[in-house]
Amino acid sequence: MRFLKFFEKATIIVICSILLSACGGKVPGADARKISPDPKERVKQNIEQGKGFRLTNSAKNSGTFDFASSNELWRASLDTLEFMPLALANYSGGIIVTDWYSDGNNSDESVKISIRFLSNEVRSDALAVKVFYKNCGMTDNCKISDRSGDLAVEISQKILNKAAIYEKEKVGKNKPYIISNSD
């Protein structure tokens, strides 16, 4: 029994030493003549080559990440569709999809809306709204059709109007106050 444990340990040590000595003590691709001895230079070079990351926001080309609540179109879309259950709301993917919704008046018909964000700017071509209707008969043979006509245009306009109001409020909050002394 002891012999087997000793044999296992010896085998592991042999395999590890073979693996460690396989590279001959050299790091592949590393040439000391091409690597700067200054750690700051090495960090800068690694980040430029995409081999590292920084925890601070001191890089010139770093991205800015906004929360979904700071995007006026996103907020306006959610506010417009707040009466419908959501099946998918993916801010990073730029899409909102509602679940099938029926107001109760016609139980055979329900509607589903999808909004795809094409831009973060509040403008008429920033959204792609699709409206789908599902009509189910007595035998549960449901027919789904795309009716992205007037209702899609109406939803887009309502979202854009709300987003414009939100954007105006945001600009008003960020505007500096000017105090003048009048004699």
Poorly predicted regions: 61-65
Distance between termini?
Answer: 102 Å
User: What is the CATH third-level topology name of one domain?
Assistant: Alpha-D-Glucose-1,6-Bisphosphate, Chain A, domain 4
Characterize the biggest β-sheet: 5 strands, antiparallel
Radius of gyration: 30 Å
Mean pLDDT across the residues is 77
User: Class of one domain in CATH?
Assistant: Alpha Beta
In CATH, the architecture of one domain is 2-Layer Sandwich
H/E order of the elements? HHHEEEEEH
Number of helices: 4
Helix residue percentage? 25-40%
Number of strands: 5
Strand content: 15-25%
Strand arrangement in the largest pleated sheet: 1-2-3-4-5
What structural class do you assign from the helix and strand content?
A: alpha+beta
Secondary-structure map with pairings?
Elements (H helix, E strand, L loop, with lengths): L1 H20 L17 H10 L23 H9 L5 E5 L4 E4 L10 E9 L9 E10 L5 E5 L3 H25 L9
Q: Your description of this structure?
A:
The chain is α+β, with helices and mostly antiparallel strands. It has a domain at 68-173: Alpha-D-Glucose-1,6-Bisphosphate, Chain A, domain 4 (2-Layer Sandwich), CATH 3.30.530. Helices cover 35% and strands 18% of the residues. The protein has four helices and five strands, in the order αααβββββα. It has a five-stranded antiparallel β-sheet with strand order 1-2-3-4-5, with helices on one face. Strand 1 (86-90) and strand 2 (95-98) form a beta hairpin. The N and C termini lie far apart (102 Å). Mean pLDDT is 77; it is low at 61-65.
